[in-house]
Amino acid sequence: QTENGVLLPSLQSALPFLDLHGTPRLEFHQSVFDELREKLLERVSAIALEGKVEERYKKLEDLLEKSFSLVKMPSIQPVVMCVMKHLPKVPEKKLKLVMADKDLYKACAVEVKRQIWQDNQALFGDEVSPLLKQYILEKENILFSNDISVLQNFFSPSPKTRRQGEVVQKLTQMIGKNVKLYDMVLQFLRTLFLRTRNVHYCTLRAELLMSLHDLEISEICTVDPCHKFTWCLDACIREKFVDNKRARELQGFLDGVKKGQEQVLGDLSMILCDPFAINTLALSTIRHLHDLVGQDTLPRESPDLLLLLRMLSLGQGAWDMIDSQVFKEPKMEAELITKFLPMLMSFVVDDHMFNVDQKLPSEEKGPIPYPGTIPEAFTKFLQENRIACEIGLYYILHITKQRNKNAFLRLLPALVETFSDLAFSDIFLHLLTGNLTLLGDEFALEEFCTSLFDGFFLTACSRKENVHRHVLRLLLHLHHKVAPAKLESLQKALEPTKQSGEAVKELYNQLAEKLELRKPSPAEVTETPSMELPLPTVPTPASR
After folding, report:
1. Where is this region: Disordered (predicted)?
2. What are phi and psi of 83, to 5 degrees?
């Protein structure tokens, strides 16, 4: 006991005091040990920052060599882990021992794990995979959220806010400054995007790069050829508009892709395929078309508009490009610019003319009806051309947001069949249901409900569960506006089948509960049946 005690002459006479207070020696030695360990941890951190590089790491390596055999002792483990954390290159043999022991692997710092991961793609994949699943789930939860609002939707959070999300922050921390790990994550994202066609992986690709940009990690930002392009596009997404100055910058990046470096187009297309980028480009396109109407200018004469189409085309072609490994910009169809966009502009003109006509004093002539038909070519474009379909859908969102019921009902039939069923995609339906809240009062009209539900939503409900969910979301929000007879028939039509998923059943039950609460109580409808209990008779509301 004397040999292994704390050999301080002044301490021997003081120890009996502890005995008088009933403090066991173990407790005393433990507190001394904890104190010394804290001092040692501080010293290790200090060594890692002082003196010449070779010398400081030599000291740490010697310390690791001496202490590693005690790594499984809980009391010493933090010291060993701290030494490894500060070593830029832990000896291979030690890393293998840590990797082989689950508890040690779990306990070691992320700096050590990075050294293990960079030579173990499968292990790194196991760590990243749950985070990627969580990310996709979070995005889908926002799209299917029960809160429907035109002010707060999927695209409302700013890019900077989105980058603060848990998954992006964790991935950023896992990558650190390690280019090899960053490349691995990008490879995972490309592979998953190819396998699932899920565009949220493209969002994560851009968010991750910009998160590293925020932290000024130049080791990665300087080697990612998409960095400056993504940075510029990020500013446009923040403003939800591509202005002329940034448009020229973006064009410079696209035109600057040199021969032999075409592969970068694959990455750029993935950045442009991010729904937030598509949203910004499409909104800017609609805004440009309105400006051109005012300027009496055709789409082909606007270089800014042509650039937006070029970027939309590159983004929409991302999957095909990465799948085929043919890295060249997709060819733009001339008819998109010469026929489809002028057709959209003619719809804008129709609206202007109708509005002006409504304000003119009507003499002998009756009121001019709103144009009810749509050109066959418009429907054809929406079915066969992806870019036309995307712009067409955003135009419909635009008129809905303006509460333009006439234009909405006119174009709605064209949405039943669209290119690759884009009109039934979650992002479009999420935005449409939000914008439809502005037309809430129209839901009382039979004609409006028949066009919207029977003519559009219900055509796909049975084959597409996501549409079923979005209709139920909309009705949960607006059921009190719908005429009772229509509501009843919709409730029957939307009843879940045996094949329906849990989410649909849950939403349907919520709707049924709300409708049950709205039903007038029997007292209001019929005379209250007499109660069998011998209670004094009270006049019923109906017989008063």
Report:
1. 518-544
2. -65, -45
